[in-house]
Design goal:
Subcellular location: Cell envelope
Number of helices: 15
CATH architecture: Up-down Bundle
Radius of gyration: 24 Å
Largest sheet: 3 strands, antiparallel
Distance between the termini: 47 Å
Pfam families: Peptidase_M75
Keywords: Signal
CATH topology: A middle domain of Talin 1
Number of strands: 3
Order of helices and strands: HEHHHHHHHHHHHEEHHH
InterPro entries: Imelysin-like, Imelysin-like_IPPA, Imelysin_sf
Strand content: under 5%
Organism: Aquimarina muelleri
CATH superfamily: M75 peptidase, HXXE motif
Shape: globular
Amino acid sequence: MKKSLFLILIITFLVIGCSSSDDANVTDGNKDNFDRKALLINVADNIVIPAYQNFSEDMTALKTATSNFTTTTNEANLVILRNVWIEAYISWQSVGMFEIGKAEEISFRNFMNVYPVTTSDLESNIATGEYDLTTVTKQDEQGFAALDYLLNGLSDTDAGIVEFYSTNTNAAGYKKYITDLVNRMDNLANQVLTNWKEGYRDTFVNNSGASATSSLDKLVNDFIFHYEKHLRAAKIGIPAGIFSETFDNKVEAFYKGDISKKLFNANLSALQDFFNGKHFAGDSKGESLKTYLDFLNTIRNGEDLSSLINNQFNTARAMASGLNDDFSFQIRTDNSLMTKTYDELQKNVVYLKVDMLQAISVSVDFVDADGD
């Protein structure tokens, strides 16, 4: 009897000890009665919809520039089209993280920006004229990466690229393919924007509960998934060889080359702005993941978790500032700067995916695939 009582006491002390250890790492000072709906309203009205509106307008401009180039095919119109493509690609960095609602339904991100592009299959599509861009197997033959190849990768010179759309024996095929790609991208962007404006916004905002299917739970998971897989891994880790050998051809915008850093910075800033509830293209801020953590008075090892997260965003940005504009060149010449940038990005994975989710009582709904 005495032995049983002794064992019970030992187990009790162990449980209390473990709980105390966990609480010392991350603590929440307030009961969670935070207004999740206010956060969702800010995200929908001041971040997501304005960002999609801007992206849709950039896609319309891309469609117009493509039409002008295929109608009057010369180097001047190629340069204009390329510049409009760059602007749309930068704009994309502010919406790609929101894989929710219609975007999730149509697999928007994967049809818009899978890279590297499979050039052999793309060239086969152009040669045969037979392709269905709606199929999943064609995701690496369309989108921004395919346009990168068609606008920058066909030749080392603009004159050489123009020849593919003018004097090439299948110039009509190249014109048709680039037109079909841009039309599809524009159509997908309009589908997502229209869905947000015509009903999904209210559905999103009103689903303000605390469950795996609530808007906030899904949104936060999408945010972290994008940060971890599409920023940290795809833009930096995979090409830098963090998970295997280096792949200098797997950087974003490989054929253009000198905009991969610009795209990275645009996406990093968009992710941090979202965390802080900063209005798209503005300075005002609303309820956000930051204000949620601050409301809960979430402390990690004696410091505000929201400050730790923002500081780490800034540290990663500072580390990346030393990278070459062309990530492919950076990998070939001094890959250590890429791996150091990855390391700084990885630190925020812990803050966001472990500490933040614990604080706001959200569970991870995706599976790791890169061994981290």
